[in-house]
Amino acid sequence: MLIVDICIDLSTQLCFIFRAFYDPGWKLTIEEYYDRQSKHILDTIVETLLKDERRKFIWEEMSYLERWWRDAPDAKKEALVRLLQNGQLEIVGGGWVMNDEANSHYFAIIEQEVHLNA
Fold first, then answer.
1. Which of 30, 37, 61, 76 is deepest in the core (most CB within 10 A)?
2. CB atoms closer than 10 angstroms to residue 79
3. Is the dihedral of CA 89, 4, 16, 101 positive or negative?
């Protein structure tokens, strides 16, 4: 599922922050989500961002990015690194999976970040 967050600041500038959210193991295994959706999304992100430097995207789930990185050819890996370096692609959170930000206790969020980024 592709989610678009929309925010309007006080100067009426409209911001679209594009991101993807897949919960590994929810309805499919990590491999099934990767094969059916996440690989295509990550390939498309890299291709699309390279076409227009004004575009930006954020990514959360390291489980899928790590899996994509194992399969990606060197040219795509290099392109992803360039997108990260120039700020078009941003890794947010950096956990193996996205934590439940809607109703998690702050301790659970911190615990996930500490264990998965250590």
1. 61
2. 17
3. negative
- Residue range(s) defining the domain that contains residue 80: 19-116
- Mind listing the pLDDT tens digit of every residue in the chain (118 residues)? 444 444 555 555 556 666 656 677 778 888 998 898 889 999 999 999 999 998 888 888 888 899 999 999 999 999 999 999 999 999 887 767 776 666 667 777 777 667 655 5
**Would strands 57-59 and 2-8 be described as parallel, antiparallel, or unpaired?**
unpaired
Q: Into how many domains does the chain fold?
A: 1
The CATH number of whichever domain residue 110 belongs to comes to 1.10.1240.90
Q: Give this prediction's pTM.
A: 0.72
| 3-class DSSP state of 90 | strand
Q: Answer for the pair 28, 36: CB distance below 8 angstroms, yes or no.
A: yes
